Amino acid sequence: MSRTIKLKDKEFSLYIPEKEIVAAITRVAGEIKRDMEGKEPLFVGLLTGAYMFVAELLCKISPECEITFVAYRSYSGTKSDGIVQEILPLQVYRQNRTVILLEDIVDSGLTMQYVTNKLHASGIRDVRLATMLFKPNSLKCDIRLDYVGMEIDDEFVVGFGLDYDGLGRSLRDIYKITNY
């Protein structure tokens, strides 16, 4: 574990070690298992950032989880432009099942709000939201998160699926930017 890294023109320092991330995901997995006992939810991972969170989480829930992915974009560089673009829509609609959206980080909340509204409009009644990281001070819409791994300050972070212009996703620790 390196204390600092450099990606392109930005420097980052260690913010959350892997051990803390995995502990938070393990706790979330336990909460989901408890709430979903006797149900067969469809897990929907939001690409690309949530892929490590999804893999870690579902390994702790059950080998029989059904998972699919969707892709949306609202970031450019270190800022969200506030416009949600659909890249890969949900291909599996099962109106009678609970859908659990799995996101790497919720800051403005606009992407989760967009996807939740889209699912409700398609007739899915029970949509739950799970995120590895949540920035409560950055929230710009009215959404309710059902499962939160960790709350963090309003920092730009990379690692464990999160990126800076496509770099840093494969880091097992999370790093925060030190120079803008």
Distance between the termini: 23 Å
The major sheet is characterized as: 6 strands, mixed
Overall geometry: globular
Strand content: 35-45%
Structural features, described:
By secondary structure, the chain is an alpha/beta fold. It contains three helices and ten strands. The strands form two sheets. It has a six-stranded mixed beta sheet. It has a four-stranded antiparallel beta sheet with strand order 1-2-10-9. The chain is globular and about 45 Å long.
Blueprint of the fold:
Elements: E1 4-7, E2 10-16, H1 18-35, E3 42-47, H2 51-61, E4 66-76, E5 79-88, E6 99-106, H3 110-121, E7 127-134, E8 147-151, E9 157-158, E10 174-177
Parallel strand pairs: 3-4, 3-6, 6-7, 7-8
Antiparallel strand pairs: 1-2, 2-10, 4-5, 9-10
Helix pairs in contact: 1-2
